[in-house]
Amino acid sequence: MATGTLNLLDMQQRLVPMYHSKIVVVGAAFIIIGLSMKIALFPLHIWLPGAYTYSPSSISALMSATSTKVMAYVMIRFLYTVFTPKFDVNVIPIQDILVVISMVAIIAGSFMAIGQKDLKMMYAYSSIGQIGYIILGATMLNISGIVGSIYHFASHAVVKGGLFVVSGLIFYLLGTTKIDDVKGLYYKMPYTSFAFLIFALAMIGVPLTSGFISKWYLVLGGIAKDNWFIVIVILLSSLLTAIYFWRVVNLMFFVKPTDHDYKKIKEPIIMVIPIYILVLTTVVLGIFSEDFLMMAKKAAEVIMETAK
Predict the structure, then answer these.
(1) 208 burial class (0-12, 13-18, 19+ CB within 10 angstroms)?
(2) Cβ distance 88 to 52 under 8 Å?
(3) 3-state SS string over the chain?
């Protein structure tokens, strides 16, 4: 109503002299809040754990890999191509507010994941923290932060989608996704267990995985922003992620099955192949990252150029 258009570029140009309009400010606030609910940004995350946990694993994998990422993309477009950082500086400090909320989301999601007793519920609360990473990088207002955010889009989509597919295979063969029930899983389902290990390492941010690349650039973005608190939050979150994922790894690999007459379970090849495609993608994004990083940097440069 204020601009007479829905074209993003036209909107950006017409909104600049109207930044202090009450209509524009209220509209911006509603859009930010609505998008924050869609991406489950803390504390508007209440819908996500139940949706991810109680949906079929195939649906959980699809939602975690795509739906929240699309809304995060929309938020980035809104912050940079509808409004510009001038709106942030002169009217409402949206970027600074989102940086703080994102850091809280990263830590809160990690702490909530530690106490879960179900794999899918653990993944769901973990996703709240990972969404925080994406928004944090996008709101740092520097190239490194935006590159880290874009890379985390891809990394988290592959890794978290893979984890939900793994949990689906475990449920299909064992009838449960309870963490206590995966004791000695490596002795029964070695291929599934090894895939879980690779995804867990990527979530932690271990080198040679995609998670390391995205977190490295987010740390560089925090340094470029001269905000060492961001760096501390990322490192602390990685430590917390290691705690709750390594608890599962320990049960899988280093605790023998409680049933002494256990037998190896045949893992359907048609279900294992998609998992290992995602495992391979995670490793490729971690080792051969140059091409994707080049595309991410070009995108970041375009975003920053648009924001001027």
Answers:
(1) middle
(2) no
(3) CCCCCCCHHHHHHHHHHHCCCHHHHHHHHHHHHHHHHHCCCCCCCCHHHHHHHHCCHHHHHHHHHHHHHHHHHHHHHHHHHHCCHHHHHHCCCHHHHHHHHHHHHHHHHHHHHHCCCEHHHHHHHHHHHHHHHHHHHHCCCCHHHHHHHHHHHHHHHHHHHHHHHHHHHHHHHHCCCEHHHHCCHHHHCHHHHHHHHHHHHHHHCCCCCHHHHHHHHHHHHHHHCCCHHHHHHHHHHHHHHHHHHHHHHHHHHHCCCCCCCCCCCCCCHHHHHHHHHHHHHHHHHHHCCHHHHHHHHHHHHHHHHHCC
Please give the pLDDT value at position 280.
93
pTM of the model: 0.84
List residues bridging with 301 in a β-sheet. none
In the structure, what pLDDT confidence band is assigned to residue 259 with cuts at 50, 70 and 90? low
Identity of residue 184: G
Q: Residue 199's pLDDT is what? A: 92
Q: Name residue, tokens 């191509």.
A: 81
Structure tokens at 263: 């037998």
For residue 58, report the phi and psi dihedrals to the nearest 5 degrees. -65, -40
Single-letter amino acid, residue 262:
Y
Cβ count within 10 A of residue 61: 25
Note the Cα 227 to chain centre separation in Å: 21
